[in-house]
Design brief:
The protein has 15 helices and five strands. By secondary structure, it is of the alpha/beta class. Strand 3, helix 6 and strand 4 form a beta-alpha-beta unit. It starts with 9 loop residues before the first helix and ends with a helix.
Length: 357
């Protein structure tokens, strides 16, 4: 199904859950992959036994939120037939337009607040926002239909806001539906997990990612084939991740980091020093994050490739992975100099590779 062009105001452009230059999941009417996930919701709708809470898990950018809004449109569409073969709702339908505008009276969306003229985008979903949104669930919908709450994402809930959500999920009002998106469902509050039907969405294959990107139109659909192919190799089945990497400079930078890592335990001191200097600059945040992602992905690949060596031999790599994550958090929280950390990172990795050899 084609997507209608949608106009957005300045505030919407700053939505923290929007990828710049691409439609927000609530605006995306084309749907790619995840047939089993859609089938699970269709079955519940057809037999009238739709579970009241779903934990939709999987890597970021594979379509979890897109599926959640797709389900919400279908559930809230008064014209929908119970025998429908898909969750499709026309973009021109009133319910679709209301959900795009976040104005549907029976839909609550819990997410980080967008930036305004006076405030930056919020870093978490506060408990007051959860309480306000869920106040609508205290009564039955005026039309006797469903009330739907989308949480995008569970990782943005504070302890207090997660507990407030839990109270409603534990004793849900009739005909209520909670769609909780999570990039790391194993970390969601166990009491929330236990009350949800878990739906794990897997990374998409390359052909599906390509089709999703092609549906976005210009400029994404006009990218050179070689750039798209390189991005697909690194995108790990995520449309969002692949879009982020449709940049020749980013791909070249990842290649530079990977080359340094592949040469370990041999030290490329000059190159590492140069890298540390370049990533210490104030304008290097994006490349710094890309370096950390590349290192973590490389360690994961090493652990899979050397799994036959056994846990004892691989323990040094696991330990250094945890140390890197811990140190990176400290650098971020305390705004520390990145240079010593980057030098330590490569030294520790060299030692771990040597010990695992």
């Amino acid at each position: 199904m084609s997507r209608e062009p949608l106009s957005r105001g300045p505030a919407e452009m700053d939505e923290p859950d929007r990828f710049e230059g691409a439609p927000h999941p609530r605006e995306q009417f084309a749907f790619f992959g995840h047939e089993e996930g859609e089938a699970a919701f269709l079955e519940g709708l057809r037999n009238g036994r739709l579970h009241h809470a779903w934990l939709i898990g999987g890597p970021q950018g594979i379509g979890k939120a897109t599926l959640a809004y797709r389900v919400a449109r279908a559930v809230l569409d008064p014209a929908r037939s119970g025998a429908a073969e898909s969750l499709d709702v026309a973009p021109q339908a009133n319910v679709a337009r209301q959900i795009v505008a976040l104005s549907h009276p029976n839909l609550a969306v819990l997410r980080r607040a967008p930036a305004t003229d006076k405030k930056a985008a919020s870093a978490a979903i506060p408990v007051d926002a959860v309480r306000r949104a869920l106040a609508t669930f205290a009564s039955t919908a005026a039309d006797g239909g469903y009330r739907v709450c989308i949480v995008d994402s569970a990782e943005d809930l504070t302890v207090a806001s997660a507990n407030a959500l839990l109270k409603v999920i534990e004793e849900p009002p009739p005909r209520s539906l909670f769609l909780i998106v999570s990039h790391a469902p194993q970390r969601v509050l166990p009491t929330i997990r236990s009350r949800c039907r878990r739906l794990l969405l897997r990374p998409l294959d390359d052909a599906t990612v390509k089709a999703a990107i092609g549906s976005l139109g210009s400029p994404w659909a006009d990218m050179p084939a070689d750039v798209v192919d390189q991005a697909l190799k690194l995108g790990e089945g995520s449309v969002r991740r692949t879009l982020e990497l449709l940049d020749a400079e980013k791909v070249a930078f990842i290649g530079q980091i990977t080359t340094l890592l592949d040469r370990l335990p041999r030290a490329e001191t000059r190159q590492v020093l140069s890298l540390a200097e370049s990533l210490a600059r104030k304008d290097a945040d994006e490349n710094y994050d890309l370096m950390l992602e590349t290192v973590q992905r490389w360690i994961t690949a090493q652990l899979h490739a050397k799994a036959s060596l056994g846990p004892r031999r691989l323990a040094p790599l696991v330990e250094v992975c945890e140390k890197i994550a811990r140190s990176a958090r400290e650098i971020d929280v305390f705004n520390l100099d990145r240079r010593p950390f980057i030098l330590m990172l490569f030294d520790d990795l060299a030692d771990a590779v040597r010990r695992a050899a």
